[in-house]
Amino acid sequence: LEYSRKTVLEHGFVHLFSTNVSPGQGDLAVVRSARVSFDADWRTGTDEGSDEKLIHYMMRNHHTSPFESVVFTFEVKAPVFTFRQWHRHRTWSFSELSARYAPLKEDYYIPAIGKYGVQSKSNKQARNLDTIADDEAHRDRRWQEEQDEVMRLAFQTYRRHLEQGMPRELARIVLPVATYSRMFATVDLHNLMHFVRLRFDAHAQWEIQQYAKAIVELITPFVPITMKYFKETLS
Ligand SMILES: Cc1cc2nc3c(=O)[nH]c(=O)nc-3n(C[C@H](O)[C@H](O)[C@H](O)COP(=O)(O)OP(=O)(O)OC[C@H]3O[C@@H](n4cnc5c(N)ncnc54)[C@H](O)[C@@H]3O)c2cc1C
Predict the structure, then answer these.
(1) pTM, entire model
(2) What is the SS3 assignment for 75-138?
(3) Span 203-220, mean pLDDT?
């Protein structure tokens, strides 16, 4: 099923490929799953106030299993360094393109001017992206050019080695982690919210934050009430 797709970074995207619920119906799947636990009747959307209260209650009290009844599959294109972070989330199922099967296109991520920032002094792993002065824009442009040069050289070498008959699985090892990759990624709503909580957070790398944000935008029409109360729980 084709739902919708959001561009992320310059060449990346998240595409909501499929889900087991229709737009606006995902919250109902959650409350039906919850009501089974106290053997109550299924209320088929006729008692919206009570459905909403139940979702709010479950969100506040970490009654998480009913949220697992809704499942999403995304097609994602992102730099390899973002996939490295994403793949740490073991509750997702992934299927990624293999550069052993097919050669990779010359497609890589270079941060935009203003998105380099400086190394944060208060957080050892983060960067500080506060507004930049003119000379910093100049510096960012130079960093872009230098990173671009390295990437182009890596891809030139990669292509030359492929032409010379080097096996694909070894030719690829010179490609840096800024190279874009693609995957299908499946997760249930509970573990998706866990992912978003960690990766939407200011402590996460800016690039993966953009993917987490796109995911929230894509799924909200399917589970609007759940997302309303989930957003309240984000710091
Ligand atoms: C800002 C940030 C910085 C990070 N920095 C680093 C880093 O420097 N180095 C690094 O290696 N990683 C780093 N990580 C990755 C982090 O350690 C987690 O691996 C990742 O966020 C996945 O979280 P998770 O295990 O909760 O999610 P999932 O793997 O989706 O698991 C969800 C939940 O299931 C349960 N669970 C899953 N597997 C197990 C298991 N085997 N045993 C017990 N319970 C389990 C846990 O309750 C877990 O919270 C970082 C993550 C963030 C958000």
Answers:
(1) 0.93
(2) EEEEEHHHHHHHCCCCCCEEEECCCCCCCCCCCECCCCCCCCCEECCCCCCCEECCCCCHHHHH
(3) 96
